[in-house]
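Budget justification note: compute hours in this period were largely spent on complex prediction jobs such as the one shown. Inputs:
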Amino acid sequence: MQSQIHEFVVRPIGYVLDEKDPAEAPPEVKVVEILPGFARGLEGIEQFSSLWILYWLHQLPEETRSVLMVHPQGDRSQQLRGVFSTHSPLRPNPIGLSRVRLLKREGNLLYLANLDAHPGSPILDIKSGQ
Amino acid sequence: MQSQIHEFVVRPIGYVLDEKDPAEAPPEVKVVEILPGFARGLEGIEQFSSLWILYWLHQLPEETRSVLMVHPQGDRSQQLRGVFSTHSPLRPNPIGLSRVRLLKREGNLLYLANLDAHPGSPILDIKSGQ
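Corresponding output:
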């Protein structure tokens, strides 16, 4: 294997807002605020009803990145399995992936259903149409 | 919006091999080599026929990360659109996402169909079963 760069930097393009903010969103809806510097990247997104959201699993301590085997769903009666063959949030690069429904866009706010991310999660990317 | 961490570091867990290596793979098949330190994370992955692969778009110069509007498919007859509503590889966090078929695993080598990544691309994560 050739010589390689061994790390890359990712930066949030926005965040999942706290559940009560804005107050009018129903509880199953999560609101993502895209930072003003990235808002132009949203142009045309209204035409998609489904999106992929990539986010950072920011609540995990750094040492969980070295975990490579887990009990699926934390169930110790199940055999240990490699993290890449589970849904575990413990993984070397703690990036979450959710297929969401885009309910509404208001400027740089996206109202989303089915987003697994917790409030405060940094959003890394939004992908559409696949 | 509360105070936040503004960058995170991701590290390759493996790489897409050059097309001729190993020589016996047919051209539409891409081979990913997972680094020995992460190989245990693959345990149990054989039970999945489809996987999500997250990879780093390593061939793009750093300045393409500031591009927020593109002509879809590079077609200048189409109106400029925000990168989050296109498939463009130009995006603030150049992470690629492919839904692949797992054809075979040989130790820390994965033989994959439908992987869009170029040879040499760093692999960031593998997700299964969603």
